[in-house]
Amino acid sequence: MPLHGTARLPLLLLLSWHLRQRDCVRSKLLSEEAGALLPLASLTSEEQAQAAARLQLVQAELLWLRGELDAAEATAMRAHATLRALNDGAGCADVHWLLSSIAVDRGDHAGCDAQLQAAGIEARSAGDTMRADLADAATARWAVLRDAQTAQARWGEHFPAQATHGDGQLAAPLAAWVHDFHGLLARNSRDLGRAAGHYMQSYEAALESGQLRAAITAAANIGDCLANLNDHQSALEWMQCALDLARPTGWPRSIGACQTHTAETMRKLGRLDAAEELLGEALRLLAPMSGARSYANALFYFGELSLDKGDYDTALGAFRQLAQRAEALGQADFRCLAQRGSAHALSYLDRQDEAHLAARRALRLATQQGDAINQIAALRVLAMLHARHDLPPPQDMSERSPALHYLHQALQVAGAIAGYSPPGELFDALAREYAHTGDYARAYAIALEAGAAREKSHTQQATHRAIAMQVHHQAEHARSEGYHHRELAASEARRAEVLQQTSDTLERLSAIGQEITTHLDADAVFQVLDRHVHALLPAHTFAIYMLDSAGTALRRAHGMEAGQRLPDNIIALNNPRAYSVRCLLGRSEVYIPQVPARRHAYTVPGTRHNQSVLYVPLTVGERVLGVMTVQSCDADAYGERERLIFRTLCAYGAIALDNANAYRQLQDAQAQLVSQEKLAALGSLVAGVAHELNTPIGNSLLIASTMQQKTEDVERLMNGPGLRRSELASYIDDAAQAAALVMRGLHSAAELVNSFKQVAVDRTTEQRRQFDLQQVTHEVIATVMNRIRSSGHRIETDIAFGIALDSYPGPFGQVLTNLINNALLHAFGHLDKNGNGSGGVMHLHATASATHVQIRFNDNGAGIAERHLSRIFDPFFTTKLGQGGSGLGLSISYNIVTALLGGQIQVASNSAGTCFTLDLPLVAPRLDSAEPANIY
Questions:
Q1: CA atoms within 13 Å, Cβ hemisphere of 178
Q2: What is the spatial distance between Cα 779 and Cα 761, in angstroms, rounded to a whole number?
Q3: What is the DSSP string of 350-379?
Q4: How far apart are CA 501 and CA 108, in angstroms?
Q5: Element of type H or E holding 773
Q6: How far apart are CA 501 and CA 686, in angstroms?
Q7: I want to staple 404 with a disulfide (CB 3.0 to 4.6 A). Which of 27, 55, 292, 399 is the partner?
Q8: Which residues are CB-contacts of 662 (< 8 A; sequence separation ≥ 6)?
């Protein structure tokens, strides 16, 4: 029966409090209705006063969320006076909690601490341990921003990182703050993967407990961590998630903070105009709360953006405002960042003395806080200042120049950080300074160290990408499941158990997938797959069949049965009875829950009769590599969950085996290489395929796995209590988004695979064949397109289809790659990454005659100095020693064109750019196999 009149009052009071962040508009309407009914209710005067104070507290929180801080504080204080008089400790604790949030938005962190301390005291006096723990967790969270080491020592054992929401140790309201605390600690120590994990748990717990503002902050922090792990696509998705939560609320602080983080990611991606627009809107929204940390964040990012745009006056103004806010907030990280940014801007404004003082202040602040990363940054700024300006040398200088002095100090600090590898740019700066002082031997030695550091950095970046992919998968799961926490209590408990199992499975499969795809040896991939299949599934027999090179038969590449290795076996593709052949030709899963007895006559001699068998094709894009099978002596051994696990393992295995095959081809090529330049080119190909291929396919696989689980949830609802329209709509939206992401990723991967394999074959064999110039050119450009895009430049082609050559596509591709790399390093090296709004442009044009083709490669870069033109084809001649140039690229290209391809290469250059002209015969000259061309 529906309630009417004053009978609604108790529920109105509860609902208005429960919805104050979940649905502000409805909470306001309910509180107003409750206020109108309150005088009519049969309550004692104390009960009426307590209810009225609770309604005032709801109104105060709504005012705070809208940014009306003075009105919120006044309303909260009126509620506190009543609750204090009634000796309502829990109510007083809630008032102090709200007042602490108001203090934060004003930038009064001392006031925040005092209010949280008062909240804890009131809660303990009322015997409310939950509210007391909440106050302590919030205190710990804000303490990290002042001094992370002290906060860890004070609160780390009180709130252990192992205590997680969902295992019975932490309730959702408390889990949101405890994981926020540990997320900040991990982020401060640069453990971004662990930080993102904590923020995801904070996000889930905040949504479940109705702390929408905390959920918005957590989502933005996840995006920031992913951006720093170089997963900008996932970062932007999380930023958009935070904005989607914030915009409908109209809360200025939350919207402004989300826009700030999104703008910073845009800046890192080079989209400076979009970043400037977002930051401008964020600063306007946050201006009424200029005391908040969010406003200081926006100022810092605005200063960084202005530096990128070359607007140094604006940058200086932003950093000086930040310095004022940092002093008011009492937060050391902003003090250091403000001084360092000011030094950078002042240097480019030719105010070197002020810049020098600011940089030294930044160094002192970072040293006092024990912040080694900011110490290194400050020392590098000091080195830059002394390199650009004539400044007094430091008193304790022991090196040849002040710049060398500070760079060595930076290197010394970097070496003292556990697990930290100094960046290659630091070694490059040292090499340049030694070269500037005339010590070329030392410069060359340090340039070699720079190369080693970059190689190590590439490995770390690959690790970061793997961490980002795992975090992305966990985040997708958290996001897709987070909206279902508002069900009835019984349904919530049942679903939480299912979600936990799914999360564990996905996390384990994600880790397994990373392990599988790290191997580039087929036998190692087989062993890893064998181990995990036997650990995860009932597997009496496990085998992998690979399609032979002729495409006529399946060969058992790996097989184990009851712990014993199976002998080699070949199955012809015209075998009508083989399940493996049916699976391969149909490119679909074959599952036989109960093998018919008549099939036992076809069992391979020496193997057992299994009762249930599962075959899954190994596919990469449109290509099928083979078949993987798992079999059990028991009937119906593989349910949907087991089949999902096996499909996922097959998908990872297919990627790994395809990579292993490509890597094997590259290894064959490496055996023939005799120059460092060609080894570097092949390394670039491997990095290109790992970056461009693994990520979209891995993401697509786990998106598909997540949608499989969501489909099961919808089916269970349809067959059970019923499916709501909102749930169906949510499922359809998720499915559409997932389908778009999967299709985009797989189409991109398929195109890249085809291009990469042809280029890889050409490079490894130096095989002479007939080819179309346009096709080969596009395939080669695809392998370096990632570097071109990331450098902020572009390449245009004007090559007609149908220009056929009988020549060597591999060496020709190396010439083209060398010309592109030469332009990126030398022609555009003077440009900012974004070129102040326009990057460099490379243009490739071909014109064919009856017997020859003329290929022109030109750029609009800085050009080549006239004194260097006569030497650019000399071996080891480079103007970028220690900065990525080896002096071999153009020398090798000249030898390939003239000795192998039978053509000529010429160069012309001026201040408007450089043009290389290749004149090649359509039919390359025949070479004496006994005397190969000397091209390296």
A1: 24
A2: 12
A3: T-HHHHHHHHHHHHHHHHHHT-HHHHHHHH
A4: 43
A5: helix 773-790
A6: 36
A7: 399
A8: 686, 689, 756, 757, 760
Instruction: Round to whole Å and give the CA distance between 105 and 293.
Output: 8
Q: Provide DSSP, 207-233.
A: HHTT-HHHHHHHHHHHHHHHHHTT-HH
Mean pLDDT per segment of 10 residues, for the chain of length 936 residues? Answer: 75 90 91 90 90 94 90 94 93 94 86 93 93 93 86 87 59 91 85 84 89 91 80 81 88 87 83 89 85 84 91 92 82 83 91 90 85 84 88 85 86 74 79 84 82 67 55 53 46 60 72 82 90 89 91 91 88 88 92 86 74 93 92 90 89 90 73 48 54 70 83 84 81 84 73 55 64 91 82 90 92 89 81 59 94 94 86 75 62 86 92 92 79 51
Q: Which amino acid is at 248?
A: P
Rounded-to-integer distance, Cα 862 and Cα 910, Å: 8
Give pLDDT, residue 411: 84
- Please give the structure tokens belonging to residue 644: 């999902």
Cα four-point dihedral sign 38, 42, 46, 50: negative
Report which residue type is found at 301.
Answer: Y
841 - beta bridge partners?
794
Distance CA 43, CA 353 (A): 73
CA dihedral 435, 440, 442, 446 (to 10 degrees): 60
Per DSSP, the three-state class of 837 is helix
Cβ partners under 8 Å of residue 501, min gap 6:
none
Q: At 628, which helix (H) or strand (E)?
A: strand 623-632
| pLDDT for 107 | 78
Q: Give the three-state DSSP class for 571.
A: strand
Six token digits for residue 81? 């006076």
Residue among 674, 685, 761 nearest 935 (CA): 674
Q: Which residues contact 537 (CB under 8 A, 6 or more apart)?
A: 630, 638, 642, 645, 646
Does residue 842 contact residue 809 with C-beta atoms inside 8 Å? Answer: no
Task: In the chain, count H helices and then E strands.
Answer: 32, 14
Nearest CA-CA partner of 43 in 34, 33, 31: 34
Which has the closest alpha carbon to 419: 148, 190, 92, 179?
Answer: 190
Segments of 378-468 assigned E as strands:
none
Given this model, what pLDDT does residue 433 score? 83
Spatial neighbors of 632 by CB under 8 A, at least 6 apart, are: 538, 539, 540, 541, 610, 611, 612, 613, 638
**CA triple 313-319-321, angle to 5 deg:** 105
Sign of dihedral through CA atoms 38, 40, 42, 43? positive
CA distance 294 to 132: 26
Question: What SS3 state is found at 806?
Answer: strand
pLDDT in the model for residue 122: 94
Contact 269, 232 (CB under 8 A): yes
Element holding 545 (H helix, E strand): strand 541-547
Residues near 4 by beta carbon (within 8 Å), at least 6 away in sequence: none
**According to the model, what pLDDT value does residue 650 have?**
92
369 is written with which tokens? 């806080």
Give dist(CA 680, CA 693) in Å, integer: 20
Global pTM? 0.46
- Mutual orientation of helices 89-106 and 69-85 as an angle, nearest 10°? 160
CA distance 879 to 495: 64
Angle between helical axes of 129-146 and 89-106 (0-180°, round to 10): 20
